[in-house]
Protein backbone atom coordinates (compact mmCIF):
# COMPACT_ATOMS: atom_id res chain seq x y z
CA UNK A 1 0.00 0.00 0.00
CA UNK A 2 1.54 3.31 -1.09
CA UNK A 3 1.78 6.27 1.26
CA UNK A 4 0.00 8.91 -0.81
CA UNK A 5 0.25 12.63 -0.06
CA UNK A 6 -2.93 14.16 1.24
CA UNK A 7 -4.75 16.57 -1.05
CA UNK A 8 -3.57 19.47 1.13
CA UNK A 9 0.07 18.35 1.15
CA UNK A 10 0.04 17.83 -2.61
CA UNK A 11 -1.45 21.27 -3.18
CA UNK A 12 1.69 22.92 -1.75
CA UNK A 13 3.73 21.16 -4.44
CA UNK A 14 1.28 21.97 -7.23
CA UNK A 15 1.14 25.71 -6.51
CA UNK A 16 4.88 26.11 -5.95
CA UNK A 17 6.67 28.22 -8.53
CA UNK A 18 10.36 29.18 -8.87
CA UNK A 19 9.63 32.68 -7.54
CA UNK A 20 7.49 31.44 -4.64
CA UNK A 21 9.10 28.38 -3.03
CA UNK A 22 6.80 26.89 -0.40
CA UNK A 23 9.18 26.37 2.50
CA UNK A 24 9.24 27.82 5.99
CA UNK A 25 12.51 28.66 7.69
CA UNK A 26 14.16 29.82 10.85
CA UNK A 27 17.38 31.49 11.91
CA UNK A 28 18.68 30.42 15.31
CA UNK A 29 21.83 31.96 16.79
CA UNK A 30 23.77 29.97 19.43
CA UNK A 31 26.47 30.73 21.96
CA UNK A 32 29.30 28.30 21.35
CA UNK A 33 29.94 26.35 24.61
CA UNK A 34 33.34 25.67 26.10
CA UNK A 35 33.30 22.08 24.90
CA UNK A 36 32.60 23.35 21.39
CA UNK A 37 29.73 22.99 18.98
CA UNK A 38 30.82 22.25 15.44
CA UNK A 39 29.47 20.78 12.22
CA UNK A 40 30.33 17.22 13.25
CA UNK A 41 28.34 17.58 16.49
CA UNK A 42 25.36 18.95 14.60
CA UNK A 43 25.51 16.01 12.18
CA UNK A 44 25.54 13.60 15.10
CA UNK A 45 22.65 15.40 16.81
CA UNK A 46 20.46 15.38 13.71
CA UNK A 47 21.34 11.78 12.94
CA UNK A 48 20.26 10.66 16.42
CA UNK A 49 16.93 12.46 16.15
CA UNK A 50 15.88 11.39 12.64
CA UNK A 51 14.54 8.12 13.98
CA UNK A 52 11.67 10.13 15.47
CA UNK A 53 10.80 11.68 12.10
CA UNK A 54 10.57 9.02 9.36
CA UNK A 55 9.22 11.56 6.88
CA UNK A 56 12.55 13.39 6.88
CA UNK A 57 14.13 10.44 5.08
CA UNK A 58 11.43 10.21 2.46
CA UNK A 59 11.05 11.99 -0.85
CA UNK A 60 8.10 12.74 -3.11
CA UNK A 61 7.57 10.43 -6.09
CA UNK A 62 5.14 11.65 -8.78
CA UNK A 63 2.66 9.27 -10.39
CA UNK A 64 3.04 8.98 -14.19
CA UNK A 65 0.46 11.00 -16.06
CA UNK A 66 -0.67 12.64 -12.80
CA UNK A 67 -3.25 9.88 -12.46
CA UNK A 68 -3.17 10.32 -8.70
CA UNK A 69 -1.45 12.42 -6.07
CA UNK A 70 2.28 11.77 -5.52
CA UNK A 71 3.45 9.28 -2.93
CA UNK A 72 6.02 9.34 -0.12
CA UNK A 73 8.85 6.85 -0.64
CA UNK A 74 12.04 6.13 1.32
CA UNK A 75 15.08 7.85 -0.14
CA UNK A 76 17.34 4.86 -0.80
CA UNK A 77 20.21 7.28 -1.48
CA UNK A 78 19.61 9.38 1.64
CA UNK A 79 22.68 11.54 2.31
CA UNK A 80 22.68 13.39 5.63
CA UNK A 81 25.61 15.55 4.55
CA UNK A 82 23.52 16.86 1.66
CA UNK A 83 20.78 18.06 4.01
CA UNK A 84 23.00 19.31 6.83
CA UNK A 85 25.31 21.81 5.15
CA UNK A 86 28.20 23.95 6.29
CA UNK A 87 28.82 27.60 5.47
CA UNK A 88 30.71 30.55 6.92
CA UNK A 89 30.64 34.33 6.98
CA UNK A 90 33.70 36.55 6.53
CA UNK A 91 34.88 37.14 10.10
CA UNK A 92 33.75 38.85 12.17
CA UNK A 93 30.31 38.11 10.82
CA UNK A 94 27.54 40.56 11.70
CA UNK A 95 23.78 40.13 11.83
CA UNK A 96 23.57 42.06 8.57
CA UNK A 97 25.85 39.62 6.72
CA UNK A 98 24.03 36.67 8.30
CA UNK A 99 20.64 37.99 7.16
CA UNK A 100 21.99 38.61 3.66
CA UNK A 101 23.06 34.97 3.49
CA UNK A 102 19.64 33.91 4.80
CA UNK A 103 18.00 35.94 2.01
CA UNK A 104 19.92 34.00 -0.63
CA UNK A 105 19.36 30.62 0.99
CA UNK A 106 15.61 31.16 1.32
CA UNK A 107 15.26 32.18 -2.32
CA UNK A 108 16.37 28.74 -3.51
CA UNK A 109 13.67 26.06 -3.89
CA UNK A 110 14.27 22.70 -2.24
CA UNK A 111 15.34 19.76 -4.41
CA UNK A 112 12.28 17.58 -5.05
CA UNK A 113 14.49 14.59 -5.86
CA UNK A 114 15.41 14.46 -2.16
CA UNK A 115 13.64 14.83 1.20
CA UNK A 116 12.27 18.36 1.43
CA UNK A 117 14.41 19.96 4.15
CA UNK A 118 17.83 21.50 4.73
CA UNK A 119 19.87 22.81 7.69
CA UNK A 120 22.82 25.17 7.33
CA UNK A 121 25.54 25.39 9.99
CA UNK A 122 26.86 28.97 9.75
CA UNK A 123 30.22 29.83 11.29
CA UNK A 124 32.19 33.08 11.45
CA UNK A 125 29.80 35.14 13.56
CA UNK A 126 31.29 37.61 16.01
CA UNK A 127 31.95 36.51 19.62
CA UNK A 128 32.30 32.89 18.55
CA UNK A 129 28.58 32.45 17.89
CA UNK A 130 27.18 30.06 15.30
CA UNK A 131 23.83 30.02 13.53
CA UNK A 132 21.52 27.32 12.24
CA UNK A 133 19.33 28.17 9.27
CA UNK A 134 16.51 25.70 8.58
CA UNK A 135 14.30 25.20 5.52
CA UNK A 136 11.31 22.84 5.62
CA UNK A 137 8.71 22.41 2.89
CA UNK A 138 5.09 23.07 3.81
CA UNK A 139 4.13 19.66 2.42
CA UNK A 140 6.30 18.02 5.05
CA UNK A 141 5.04 19.45 8.36
CA UNK A 142 1.43 18.61 9.24
CA UNK A 143 1.72 19.13 13.01
CA UNK A 144 0.55 15.66 13.99
CA UNK A 145 2.48 12.94 12.15
CA UNK A 146 5.42 15.20 11.36
CA UNK A 147 6.64 18.28 13.21
CA UNK A 148 9.39 20.73 12.39
CA UNK A 149 12.88 19.28 12.82
CA UNK A 150 13.76 22.07 15.27
CA UNK A 151 11.29 20.57 17.73
CA UNK A 152 13.58 17.55 18.13
CA UNK A 153 16.92 19.31 17.81
CA UNK A 154 16.23 21.69 20.70
CA UNK A 155 16.17 20.60 24.34
CA UNK A 156 15.41 22.38 27.60
CA UNK A 157 18.81 21.40 29.05
CA UNK A 158 22.35 21.18 27.69
CA UNK A 159 22.56 17.50 28.50
CA UNK A 160 22.51 14.96 25.73
CA UNK A 161 19.19 13.20 25.25
CA UNK A 162 19.52 9.45 24.83
CA UNK A 163 19.26 8.65 21.12
CA UNK A 164 16.30 6.52 20.18
CA UNK A 165 16.63 3.11 18.60
CA UNK A 166 17.08 3.68 14.90
CA UNK A 167 16.92 0.58 12.75
CA UNK A 168 15.90 2.42 9.61
CA UNK A 169 16.32 0.42 6.42
CA UNK A 170 14.99 2.09 3.26
CA UNK A 171 12.30 0.26 1.38
CA UNK A 172 12.52 0.02 -2.38
CA UNK A 173 10.21 2.54 -4.08
CA UNK A 174 7.36 1.23 -6.21
CA UNK A 175 7.99 0.92 -9.94
CA UNK A 176 6.28 3.17 -12.47
CA UNK A 177 3.90 0.38 -13.56
CA UNK A 178 3.03 -0.26 -9.91
CA UNK A 179 2.29 3.42 -9.35
CA UNK A 180 -0.06 3.41 -12.35
CA UNK A 181 -1.78 0.20 -11.23
CA UNK A 182 -2.31 1.60 -7.74
CA UNK A 183 -3.74 4.83 -9.18
CA UNK A 184 -6.09 2.94 -11.50
CA UNK A 185 -7.14 0.65 -8.65
CA UNK A 186 -8.00 3.64 -6.49
CA UNK A 187 -9.96 5.20 -9.36
CA UNK A 188 -11.98 2.00 -9.79
CA UNK A 189 -12.75 1.74 -6.09
CA UNK A 190 -13.42 5.47 -5.77
CA UNK A 191 -14.28 7.01 -9.17
CA UNK A 192 -14.06 10.56 -7.83
CA UNK A 193 -10.37 10.14 -6.91
CA UNK A 194 -9.17 10.92 -10.44
CA UNK A 195 -11.27 14.08 -10.61
CA UNK A 196 -10.11 15.16 -7.15
CA UNK A 197 -6.49 14.71 -8.16
CA UNK A 198 -6.95 16.87 -11.25
CA UNK A 199 -8.70 19.59 -9.26
CA UNK A 200 -6.29 19.71 -6.33
CA UNK A 201 -4.18 22.55 -7.72
CA UNK A 202 -7.15 24.65 -8.83
CA UNK A 203 -8.19 27.69 -6.81
CA UNK A 204 -11.76 28.42 -7.72
CA UNK A 205 -13.93 31.28 -6.52
CA UNK A 206 -16.15 29.07 -4.37
CA UNK A 207 -13.21 27.72 -2.37
CA UNK A 208 -11.85 31.21 -1.85
CA UNK A 209 -15.24 32.47 -0.72
CA UNK A 210 -15.60 29.64 1.78
CA UNK A 211 -12.19 30.42 3.27
CA UNK A 212 -13.05 34.09 3.48
CA UNK A 213 -16.31 33.35 5.32
CA UNK A 214 -14.36 31.41 7.93
CA UNK A 215 -11.68 34.06 8.21
CA UNK A 216 -13.85 37.10 8.77
CA UNK A 217 -16.80 35.56 10.49
CA UNK A 218 -19.81 35.73 8.20
CA UNK A 219 -21.17 35.56 4.68
CA UNK A 220 -21.99 39.27 4.52
CA UNK A 221 -18.48 40.28 5.54
CA UNK A 222 -17.02 37.72 3.15
CA UNK A 223 -19.04 39.13 0.27
CA UNK A 224 -17.83 42.63 1.07
CA UNK A 225 -14.22 41.45 1.05
CA UNK A 226 -14.64 39.71 -2.28
CA UNK A 227 -16.36 42.71 -3.84
CA UNK A 228 -13.93 45.11 -2.17
CA UNK A 229 -10.46 43.53 -2.36
CA UNK A 230 -7.66 44.37 0.05
CA UNK A 231 -6.36 47.95 -0.09
CA UNK A 232 -3.87 48.44 -2.89
CA UNK A 233 -0.31 49.46 -2.13
CA UNK A 234 3.33 48.42 -2.24
CA UNK A 235 2.74 45.19 -0.31
CA UNK A 236 0.89 43.55 -3.18
CA UNK A 237 3.42 43.32 -5.98
CA UNK A 238 4.54 40.65 -8.39
CA UNK A 239 7.07 38.53 -6.48
CA UNK A 240 10.47 38.11 -8.07
CA UNK A 241 12.90 35.29 -7.37
CA UNK A 242 15.01 37.39 -4.99
CA UNK A 243 14.54 37.77 -1.25
CA UNK A 244 15.62 40.24 1.41
CA UNK A 245 15.43 39.28 5.08
CA UNK A 246 16.06 41.04 8.35
CA UNK A 247 15.46 40.21 11.99
CA UNK A 248 14.79 42.29 15.07
CA UNK A 249 14.75 41.60 18.81
CA UNK A 250 12.57 43.58 21.21
CA UNK A 251 11.95 43.07 24.94
CA UNK A 252 8.96 41.06 26.09
CA UNK A 253 8.81 43.20 29.25
CA UNK A 254 7.95 46.24 27.11
CA UNK A 255 4.84 44.51 25.77
CA UNK A 256 3.91 43.30 29.24
CA UNK A 257 4.16 46.90 30.49
CA UNK A 258 1.82 48.02 27.68
CA UNK A 259 -0.57 45.20 28.61
CA UNK A 260 -0.59 46.33 32.25
CA UNK A 261 -1.06 49.98 31.30
CA UNK A 262 -3.93 49.56 28.82
CA UNK A 263 -5.54 46.27 29.80
CA UNK A 264 -4.85 44.65 26.45
CA UNK A 265 -3.05 41.42 25.58
CA UNK A 266 0.61 41.05 24.63
CA UNK A 267 -0.56 39.94 21.18
CA UNK A 268 -2.62 43.16 20.82
CA UNK A 269 0.45 45.21 21.74
CA UNK A 270 2.62 43.38 19.20
CA UNK A 271 0.13 44.01 16.40
CA UNK A 272 -0.35 47.64 17.43
CA UNK A 273 3.41 48.16 17.27
CA UNK A 274 3.52 46.52 13.84
CA UNK A 275 0.65 48.72 12.68
CA UNK A 276 2.50 51.85 13.77
CA UNK A 277 5.63 50.67 11.95
CA UNK A 278 3.70 49.94 8.75
CA UNK A 279 2.08 53.38 8.98
CA UNK A 280 5.49 55.06 9.21
CA UNK A 281 6.87 52.88 6.42
CA UNK A 282 4.00 53.73 4.08
CA UNK A 283 4.58 57.41 4.82
CA UNK A 284 8.27 56.95 3.94
CA UNK A 285 7.08 55.70 0.55
CA UNK A 286 5.18 59.03 0.22
CA UNK A 287 1.80 57.31 0.18
CA UNK A 288 -1.19 59.37 1.27
CA UNK A 289 -3.00 58.01 4.32
CA UNK A 290 -6.39 59.13 5.59
CA UNK A 291 -7.93 58.30 9.00
CA UNK A 292 -9.78 55.29 7.53
CA UNK A 293 -6.77 53.77 5.75
CA UNK A 294 -6.13 50.14 6.63
CA UNK A 295 -3.87 47.23 5.75
CA UNK A 296 -5.50 43.81 5.77
CA UNK A 297 -3.41 41.17 7.51
CA UNK A 298 -3.91 37.44 7.26
CA UNK A 299 -3.34 36.19 10.81
CA UNK A 300 -3.33 32.40 11.36
CA UNK A 301 -4.46 31.35 14.86
CA UNK A 302 -4.52 27.91 16.44
CA UNK A 303 -7.99 26.66 17.38
CA UNK A 304 -9.07 23.72 19.49
CA UNK A 305 -10.45 20.65 17.82
CA UNK A 306 -14.16 20.44 18.78
CA UNK A 307 -13.59 16.90 20.13
CA UNK A 308 -10.55 17.88 22.22
CA UNK A 309 -11.11 18.82 25.85
CA UNK A 310 -7.99 20.93 26.10
CA UNK A 311 -5.13 22.03 23.88
CA UNK A 312 -2.66 19.22 23.18
CA UNK A 313 -0.39 18.08 20.34
CA UNK A 314 -3.18 15.72 19.25
CA UNK A 315 -5.49 18.68 18.70
CA UNK A 316 -2.92 20.70 16.76
CA UNK A 317 -3.50 19.50 13.21
CA UNK A 318 -3.22 21.48 10.01
CA UNK A 319 -6.94 22.10 9.59
CA UNK A 320 -7.15 23.52 13.11
CA UNK A 321 -4.81 26.42 12.46
CA UNK A 322 -7.28 28.86 11.02
CA UNK A 323 -6.48 32.07 9.14
CA UNK A 324 -8.27 35.26 10.16
CA UNK A 325 -8.40 38.59 8.36
CA UNK A 326 -7.62 41.57 10.56
CA UNK A 327 -7.79 45.20 9.46
CA UNK A 328 -4.75 47.13 10.72
CA UNK A 329 -5.65 50.83 11.19
CA UNK A 330 -2.55 52.40 9.61
CA UNK A 331 -4.48 55.65 9.03
CA UNK A 332 -4.95 56.27 12.77
CA UNK A 333 -2.26 58.70 14.01
CA UNK A 334 -2.80 58.02 17.73
CA UNK A 335 -0.93 54.88 18.93
CA UNK A 336 -3.36 54.18 21.76
CA UNK A 337 -6.37 54.34 19.46
CA UNK A 338 -4.54 52.00 17.10
CA UNK A 339 -4.12 49.61 20.03
CA UNK A 340 -7.82 49.81 20.86
CA UNK A 341 -8.82 49.12 17.26
CA UNK A 342 -6.52 46.10 17.20
CA UNK A 343 -7.94 44.83 20.49
CA UNK A 344 -11.51 44.99 19.17
CA UNK A 345 -10.51 43.19 15.96
CA UNK A 346 -8.72 40.44 17.87
CA UNK A 347 -11.59 39.92 20.29
CA UNK A 348 -13.90 39.36 17.34
CA UNK A 349 -11.56 36.61 16.10
CA UNK A 350 -11.01 35.08 19.53
CA UNK A 351 -14.74 34.80 20.12
CA UNK A 352 -15.12 32.76 16.96
CA UNK A 353 -14.61 29.02 17.70
CA UNK A 354 -12.14 27.97 20.38
CA UNK A 355 -9.00 29.88 19.58
CA UNK A 356 -6.00 28.98 21.69
CA UNK A 357 -4.48 31.55 24.00
CA UNK A 358 -0.71 31.87 24.22
CA UNK A 359 -0.72 30.66 27.84
CA UNK A 360 -2.43 27.41 26.80
CA UNK A 361 0.04 26.76 24.00
CA UNK A 362 3.02 27.21 26.30
CA UNK A 363 1.70 24.45 28.58
CA UNK A 364 2.05 21.86 25.82
CA UNK A 365 5.14 19.71 26.31
CA UNK A 366 7.47 19.86 23.32
CA UNK A 367 5.70 22.83 21.76
CA UNK A 368 7.85 24.43 19.08
CA UNK A 369 7.13 27.80 17.49
CA UNK A 370 8.73 26.56 14.26
CA UNK A 371 5.99 23.94 13.88
CA UNK A 372 3.31 26.54 14.54
CA UNK A 373 4.82 28.83 11.90
CA UNK A 374 4.83 25.95 9.41
CA UNK A 375 1.16 25.27 10.12
CA UNK A 376 0.41 28.99 9.84
CA UNK A 377 2.00 29.09 6.39
CA UNK A 378 -0.03 26.04 5.35
CA UNK A 379 -3.23 27.69 6.53
CA UNK A 380 -2.45 30.87 4.61
CA UNK A 381 -1.13 29.43 1.36
CA UNK A 382 -4.48 28.67 -0.26
CA UNK A 383 -5.79 32.23 0.09
CA UNK A 384 -6.18 34.48 -2.89
CA UNK A 385 -3.57 37.23 -3.00
CA UNK A 386 -6.21 39.88 -3.65
CA UNK A 387 -7.89 39.35 -0.28
CA UNK A 388 -5.06 40.44 2.02
CA UNK A 389 -1.92 42.56 2.02
CA UNK A 390 0.47 40.88 4.43
CA UNK A 391 0.85 37.58 6.28
CA UNK A 392 1.64 37.96 10.00
CA UNK A 393 2.17 34.83 12.11
CA UNK A 394 2.78 35.26 15.85
CA UNK A 395 3.59 32.16 17.88
CA UNK A 396 4.72 32.28 21.53
CA UNK A 397 7.80 30.36 22.53
CA UNK A 398 9.32 29.14 25.78
CA UNK A 399 10.73 31.62 28.28
CA UNK A 400 13.49 29.30 29.46
CA UNK A 401 16.72 28.72 27.49
CA UNK A 402 16.82 26.02 24.83
CA UNK A 403 19.86 24.09 23.67
CA UNK A 404 21.11 22.25 20.61
CA UNK A 405 23.40 19.73 22.22
CA UNK A 406 25.37 21.83 24.70
CA UNK A 407 24.99 25.08 22.70
CA UNK A 408 22.55 27.60 24.17
CA UNK A 409 20.18 29.32 21.76
CA UNK A 410 20.59 33.10 22.04
CA UNK A 411 18.10 34.28 19.40
CA UNK A 412 15.49 32.90 17.00
CA UNK A 413 14.01 34.62 13.93
CA UNK A 414 11.15 33.00 11.95
CA UNK A 415 11.21 33.12 8.14
CA UNK A 416 7.73 32.95 6.61
CA UNK A 417 7.33 32.26 2.87
CA UNK A 418 6.08 34.82 0.38
CA UNK A 419 2.85 33.97 -1.37
CA UNK A 420 1.93 34.95 -4.89
CA UNK A 421 1.72 38.75 -5.19
CA UNK A 422 2.61 39.14 -1.50
CA UNK A 423 5.81 41.15 -1.10
CA UNK A 424 6.13 40.83 2.69
CA UNK A 425 5.63 38.10 5.29
CA UNK A 426 6.29 38.60 9.00
CA UNK A 427 6.98 35.87 11.53
CA UNK A 428 7.06 36.64 15.26
CA UNK A 429 7.96 34.54 18.27
CA UNK A 430 8.82 35.17 21.90
CA UNK A 431 11.74 33.42 23.54
CA UNK A 432 13.54 33.83 26.86
CA UNK A 433 12.48 37.42 27.49
CA UNK A 434 12.59 38.63 23.91
CA UNK A 435 10.08 39.12 21.10
CA UNK A 436 11.74 38.29 17.79
CA UNK A 437 10.54 39.54 14.41
CA UNK A 438 11.56 37.96 11.11
CA UNK A 439 10.74 40.09 8.05
CA UNK A 440 10.96 38.28 4.72
CA UNK A 441 10.43 40.47 1.66
CA UNK A 442 10.70 40.47 -2.08
CA UNK A 443 14.07 41.90 -3.05
CA UNK A 444 12.60 44.34 -5.58
CA UNK A 445 9.41 45.43 -3.85
CA UNK A 446 10.75 45.47 -0.25
CA UNK A 447 14.31 46.66 -0.83
CA UNK A 448 13.95 48.82 2.29
CA UNK A 449 12.84 46.06 4.67
CA UNK A 450 15.57 47.13 7.11
CA UNK A 451 13.89 50.54 7.29
CA UNK A 452 10.64 48.85 8.27
CA UNK A 453 12.48 46.88 10.97
CA UNK A 454 13.85 50.09 12.45
CA UNK A 455 10.36 51.55 12.49
CA UNK A 456 9.16 48.65 14.63
CA UNK A 457 11.53 49.82 17.35
CA UNK A 458 10.35 53.41 16.93
CA UNK A 459 6.69 52.37 17.06
CA UNK A 460 7.28 50.41 20.26
CA UNK A 461 8.93 53.42 21.89
CA UNK A 462 6.05 55.64 20.75
CA UNK A 463 3.42 53.36 22.28
CA UNK A 464 5.42 52.96 25.52
CA UNK A 465 5.85 56.70 25.90
CA UNK A 466 2.28 57.76 25.14
CA UNK A 467 0.25 59.03 28.07
CA UNK A 468 -3.46 58.44 27.71
TrEMBL record:
GO terms for molecular function: diacylglycerol O-acyltransferase activity. The lineage of its organism: Bacteria, Bacillati, Actinomycetota, Actinomycetes, Pseudonocardiales. Belongs to the long-chain O-acyltransferase family. It comes from the Bacteria. It comes from Prauserella marina. Keywords: Acyltransferase, Glycerol metabolism, Lipid biosynthesis, Lipid metabolism, Transferase. It catalyses: an acyl-CoA + a 1,2-diacyl-sn-glycerol = a triacyl-sn-glycerol + CoA. The keyword Lipid biosynthesis applies. This is Diacylglycerol O-acyltransferase. It is an enzyme of class 2 (transferase).
